[in-house]
Each structure stands twice: as structure tokens, then as C-alpha cells.
Amino acid sequence: VHRSQFPSSFLFGTATSYYQVEGAYLAGHKSLSNWDIFTHIPGKIEDGTNADVTDDQYHLFMEDVALMSDLGVNAYRFSISWARVLPSGRYGEVNSAGIDYYNNLIDALLLAGIKPFVTLNHYDIPQELEDRYGSWLSSEIQQDFGYFADVCFEAFGDRVQYWTTFNEPNVFVYDGYLSGTYPPARCSQPFGNCSAGDSALEPYIATHNVVLSHATAAEIYRNKYQEKQRGMIGIVISAHWYEPYSETPVDRLARERAMAFQFAWFVDPLVYGDYPPEMRQVLGSRLPIFSAEARRKLETKLDFIGINHYTTQYVKDCMFSPCPNSLSYGEACVYLTGEKDGVYIGNQTALDDFFVVPRGMEAMVTYVKERYNNTPMFITENGYAQATGPESVVLHDTSRIAYLESYLAALSKVMRTGADVRGYFTWSLLDNFEWLHGYLVRFGLYYVDFTTLQRTPKMSVKWYKNFLSGEETQKPS
Ligand code: GCO
């Protein structure tokens, strides 16, 4: 794959998120976020760790900007910690130390010719908002989120042209309210180790508040800032591709349901003003209704759709056929698997459900292109999971190079069909805190020694650098 296969204005970058890389969890008057609290509960994180320090990007951001500048990327996707900027949400003061930190980061990036691509919410909220009113289960969060967005547009929008309201709300809603594996650890349906107890409607209520929080922020941007600041505002969704397990009509339908419950649930309302018909069919009036006022707000639309794409799995119907486990997408009644007749759908990675299936990139982008009239898209995440191990082994990341090479080739192929994709971010700049897996899984181009915090380039750094400078690259054999 070659750089010249992409438009010259294309954004090429790396992605991170506040909780995963910043550390400094108490510095500069920051309050505790829901993830600070959650990771300190014994037994929640596989290796018993947390991100109190992680990469300490809060103190080392100049070094990280230098690494990016050396890589030759023209964009950096990062998220703003709500608890750093507004320790008590709209109930307290704006924290000037938090504003200063992001101002310094943004200025350093711009000086290095790197465009900031900013996420407002990457799973985290100030814990105080959870304690006060139950965060996403309360409509109060819409005002809080709108206020947070307003503060950020005002403080940073003169220099930030790309805004994302939410990162993967589909993940934090499922894991926070259905399986209970992420904060606030509510289990609306029996799943894994968790027994049902909380209301089965909670995921639908939480999503309703997320969608309306997006609309609130987008409306503020349109009304107060966009004309002057001339940026774009969008949302980012976790987007696995699903192939029907068999060619039977029920498995094909299962794929449509899985895609609706995974992706369209969050995007249809922002493009068409309502939840996907595939979901209404299953859930009827259990799915919330948008009021006339809400519908008006939803008309603010999306400037772009961010796609976090890593993998493809098979999907099997469980509505009409018996299944080993029918809960992969709750009431979607589907079963997801990477395996058929003892054969995996693609090479395995260090994450159980992440397989290497580059054709999925083409299919996923085509789905978004067709369903949403070719709304501009960014590939906001794509990357390869490596198991931790001796540094010398981890540095030799030829599987990552092969992965990036093949996924970028698939992306350029689908762009030739006219898909309006405007940028690509690889997850991640550096190894970091991988949520429930702690430090057991490494996604970085740069290796991080979590004792010394030293960053060391893996082989993939050289590969990405060559690619970005327009040199011929090759899959390592
Ligand atoms: C997200 C993702 C990232 C993960 C990455 C690898 O929310 O965007 O969960 O934060 O680290 O997807 O799993």
C-alpha cells in the first residue's frame, strides 16, 4: 500500500484516550472519574492494575508530540478528561489547570504541524455526576454534557477543527448497563458472571440520554461556534463487521439485527431522527420515543461518522434457532463467534474476539456509506493487539505491520468505490492501559516500559514512517 493512494489532504494519525494514557490522576485539581473509582475496586481489572500513572502523558506530552512529529503524522486523536476540566460538572468551577494542560498540548501539536482531533467523552465522567443522579440513566446528564462541550468549544475551538462528542457509546452502554463489566457495572440482563437485577430497559434509557447529549452539544456548536470556528462535529462508534454464519435467511437477518443493535442504534437517530427499524421491530414501545422537541434537536445532524474498526466475526441467529449463548447483543438475539467448523475467520490476536480480517474494513465502510448517504467518515481507530512479553519480543511487531498494511490496502480499495473517508488513525501511539486487560495487551507503535516510562519504537514505527513519507512498504514475510 502506498501513501499516494490516499488524497493529499487525508488525515493520518494515531489515537489515544485520556484515561488510558494521561495518568496524573490527582494532579492539578482534577477530580476522580468513574474509571479512577472503578479500577480501584479489587477484582475488576485482570492484572490488578489501574491507570493512576500509566504513560504519564500529562507530564510527558512534549516528548509524545516529538514522537509523533518524528513519525510524520498530521493528526492526533485524543480525549479530554471531563473531571480535569470540570471536577464537579456544572455544579462547580472550571478548573484552570485542566484548561491549561489541554491548551499546552494543543499548542504543541499545532507547532509540530499536527491537527488535534478531539474526543469529549471516551467512557469517562466525573464520579460526582454518577453519585448525584446516576449519570446516563438521568436526563440531567444532557445539560451537564452540553455545558462541558460548551466550555471546551469556547476554550479550545479557536484551534480545534475536529470534534467528537462520544467515543464508542455502544461499548460503554453495553458494558456499563447490560453485562456490567464497565462502570457503573449495572446488569440489566443475565450475562457472564452477572445476574439480572437492574431494569432491562436501562441500556435503552442510557442510549437515549447519550444521543440527546450529543444533539445538545452539536446544537451548541452550530449556534455559537461553528460559523466562526469552522470545524466539524461527529460521533465515533465501535464497528465490528459481521458475516452471517451461514447463508440461511435467518442468519442474514441476524446480521442486520446485530449491525442495528451495534451501530445504527446510535447513528440512525442522528441522521434520520429515530432508532433503527430493525430495533423497533424487536423492541416495539420498549424503545424510547423522541419528543417533538428532541426531534428538532436531532436535526442538527452529523458532520462525520467515526468508525473504530478492528475485526470481523460470524453472527448466528438465536431468535429462531437454538444457540449456545444468545446474549452477544442482548435482545438482538444473536450469537457472535470467530470460528466455524474449527477454523478461525482470520488470524488470532491477543484479544479473544479480535481476528485479522481485512475484507471487513471494505464491508464496514460500505455499510456506513450506503446506510448514511456517504456522510463523511473517518477511521478513528484500527490497530493490532499484542500480548505483553519480553521487550525484545514485543519490539519485533511484524504481525502489527502486516495488519496495518492489509487494512490500509482494504481501505484504499473501498475508497476507490467513492466512499468519502477523510482520515485514518491507528490505535495506538504507545502501549497503554487496555481497560479490563490492564497492561497485559499492547496496542502501541511505541513500546512503553511502565516502570521507567521510557518509550521505545517498535518495528512498526519504521513501517508507518516509511509509509507516511511516501516510500514503498511491504508486508514483512
Ligand atoms: C475505544 C477502545 C479503545 C481500546 C481499543 C483496543 O473505546 O475507543 O476501547 O480505547 O483501547 O479499542 O481495544
UniProtKB/TrEMBL annotation:
> Is Translocase tagged as a keyword?
no
Q: What protein is this chain from?
A: Beta-glucosidase 18-like isoform X1
Keywords for this entry? Glycosidase, Hydrolase, Signal
Q: Does the keyword Nucleotidyltransferase apply?
A: no
One GO term under biological process is:
carbohydrate metabolic process
Q: Lineage in the entry?
A: Eukaryota, Viridiplantae, Streptophyta, Embryophyta, Tracheophyta
A GO molecular function term, named singly, is: coniferin beta-glucosidase activity
What's the encoding gene here? LOC116215657
The record's section on SUPFAM superfamilies has: (Trans)glycosidases (SSF51445)
Family, per entry: Belongs to the glycosyl hydrolase 1 family.
